[in-house]
Specification:
187 residues, mainly alpha, disordered C terminus
Length: 187
């Protein structure tokens, strides 16, 4: 909590205010947030599974069968679930050393171009992930120990990349409309 000069607590401002976001932007932000939370829960489950498997392997020679396969299948789609949330909150890596002193309209145009590239990249990766998953499904490839279809892990990445594409395109339009980044130090 932040404090006013009188010492009473005030509610902290979010790292990125939603003032300029329209209804679609707020919906996209909420879906991205839910996706990121779901990805975090999947990672938490993977950590717990890994600990149980390692302890079982060391103490009782009884690891969880297929633990590495589960980790491989789930980690990729869980990772993909964070990208849109990150982009909507300006959490992606930017090197703005040379542009920080430009006028706000120029920075907005550069941010719009960068977000457009993120949107195009997200769309490309979503498309290729879907095509790859369908090809693996057609080939009938399964995991070695559990015998689970490999395409499921790949196709689960697609929604995260679609959200990333939508976030990139939305933020590109947002910056072109004059949207602002959060103030320095507000993260």
């Amino acid at each position: 909590m932040q404090h006013t000069p009188s010492g009473s607590p005030t509610r902290e401002q979010p790292a990125f205010a939603l003032d300029g976001f329209g209804p679609f932007g707020r919906l996209l932000r909420r879906l991205s947030q839910l996706s990121a939370v779901f990805g975090g829960l999947v990672f938490l489950a993977l950590v717990v599974m890994s600990i149980v498997s390692i302890v079982g392997r060391k103490l009782a020679s009884a690891p969880i069968p297929g633990d590495v396969e589960l980790l491989q299948l789930c980690a990729a789609f869980a990772s993909a679930s964070f990208f849109a949330w990150c982009h909507l909150n300006h959490g992606d890596v930017k090197v703005d050393f040379f542009t920080s002193r430009l006028p706000r309209p120029a920075i907005n145009r550069l941010d719009a171009f960068g977000s457009l590239l993120v949107g195009l990249f997200g769309g490309l990766i979503a498309w290729r992930s879907l095509a790859g998953a369908l090809a693996v499904k057609e080939a009938g490839e399964t995991t070695a120990i559990l015998g689970w279809p490999m395409w499921i892990g790949q196709i689960l990445m697609v929604p995260g990349f679609v959200l990333l594409a939508l976030a990139g395109f939305y933020m590109s339009a947002f910056h072109l409309r004059g949207g602002r980044r959060p103030a320095e130090g507000s993260v």
